[in-house]
Amino acid sequence: MLFELPPLPYAYNALEPHIDELTMRIHHDKHHQAYIDNLKAALAGHDKYLAMTLEQVIAAIPQMPKEIATTVKNNAGGHFNHSFFWPLMKPNGGGKPTGKVADAITKKFGSFEKFQEEFNTAAKKVFGSGWVWLVIDTRGQLLIVSMPNQDPVQLQGYKPIMGLDVWEHAYYLKYQNKRPDYIAAWWHVVNWDQVEQNYLNAISGK
Ligand code: MN3
Question: E strands of 43-152, at which residues?
């Protein structure tokens, strides 16, 4: 069985004070695990999909039987998105991007600060539960996109570079209704080395 909870690449309290320990424990151990459990349940009896990688399952969603397609999208998306999200953060992260992704951000958005502003605006505007993503499109162009629920950006033809979970479960214990405070805090834990790696993988077609 390929669908398993990846361990956090740091301690539960490592992102304090920006992201609190209890939120990380519940978010990782309960919410992420639930997506995996629900994905397995939805695919039970559909052996073809159980033999696939998570990425292959996501790519196959448009062709899936109607009775499982939405459940698989929600939960395969949830599993992928969260697996992608944890390494995007690290203790003593933050600052500014470096390398090729930094150049691409400056080229596309004018400056890192303008990119950050646009990303923040998109994150604040997500209505209800969802994510905001920095992706590349099929031409390799950087783009900021919002996705509802756990909808995977791959189904829109994008490759993810970095993403921010703005579901209330990601911040409510510490920040309650103040999503903008959570977004501002999150920049202090961004792992720019991972963002650069994601960008290099994406543009090289990995
Ligand atoms: Mn989440």
Answer: 130-136, 142-148
Instruction: Render pLDDT for 37-81 as a digit per residue (tens, 0 to 9).
Output: 999 999 999 999 998 999 999 999 999 999 999 999 999 999 999
Distance 56 CA to ligand 1 centre (A): 22
Rounded CA separation 29/182 (Å)? 20
Helices 179-186, 112-125: inter-axial angle, 10-degree rounding: 150
- Ligand 1 centroid from CA 150, angstroms: 8
Give the single-character DSSP code of 15. Answer: T
Q: What's the pTM?
A: 0.97
User: What is the residue type of 23?
Assistant: T
| H helix count then E strand count, the chain | 10, 3
